[in-house]
Amino acid sequence: MTELAARLLYFAASVFARLPWPWLRTLADGIAWLWQRMDARTSKVVARNITLAYPEQLPGQRAALHAGVLHGTARQALETLRMWTRPHAQNLAAIRQSQGVDLFDAAIASGRGVIVAAPHYGNWELLNQWLAAHTPLAILYAPPESAIGEAFLNRVRANAAEPGRVTQVRAEGPAIRQLIKRLKDGGVVGILPDQQPKLGDGEFAPFFGRPALTMTLLPRLAQRTGAVVLFAYCERIGELPDGRDPAFALRFEPAPDAIADADPAVGVAALNAAVERIARRDPGQYQWTYKRWSIPPPPGTLGNPYWPDCYPRRLQRRVEHADPSLARSEPDA
Length: 333
Description:
Blueprint: H1 2-17, H2 21-37, H3 41-53, H4 59-85, H5 88-92, E1 95-99, H6 101-110, E2 114-117, H7 124-134, E3 137-141, H8 147-158, E4 166-170, H9 175-184, E5 188-191, E6 202-207, E7 210-215, H10 217-225, E8 228-239, E9 246-254, H11 264-279, H12 313-322
Parallel strand pairs: 1-9, 2-5, 2-8, 3-4, 3-5
Antiparallel strand pairs: 6-7, 8-9
């Protein structure tokens, strides 16, 4: 039943994504306007993140960035539906610039294994497709809560090239062993490095000047395997001349040496600094809809900056009913 539902969802997405890009772009802009107009939770999270990340900005600057992020987020969602359901050669034709591909080729040729750190910037699904077109690839992912959603995700990502080209690895206990083996065999692993891990699976390090719980997995893999770490992203640079698709630049950058430091605190600090530098290139292309600072550092004096207004009202009522004292520092749900 789950697979059938995922196939039907894929079919619906395919039909929808056949609409011309100018239509989808206009629809995305309408969605962004509604988010802002209705003060939707997505809009609230973006506004809170901008306040946390750019405290020095004036109110007018924050308002402009807030609107830009919402428009970019909505466009990226519809853009990704097209990329998931179209021939990937057609998607890859939208990459009109490239930088640092020689670093990637040299890293593979070294035989040391390659960790591609892909922040939530630009369109990371297009990056996945480019990588899969060039080499067998293992992607670490956090599974959605919905079984149908996970089946759909597996379906669209497994089609990145011929069957078996992409291996999706759930971010769970056995994942580390699988990734270590692949890297020691000289393989390529893709990781989204700015996902907030569970307590106990990360270290706190500054991110835009505020402590953020950060994964230690990537620095540990780099330290244990000696793999080459590269940051990569597909950055929007406008639209193709005919206006039918967005245009992108593919960029690879070397990671700082400190990312593989034996001290996890040093590794995660280097990781966050690199992600922040990329996000600051064009803040409107970064995923500010994610509650990146929802888990406060011990002893938790900072609290959860998203609580309560960035959470569903039903969750607020449940927490306040169970223990009103939790309302100021409820962890992410």
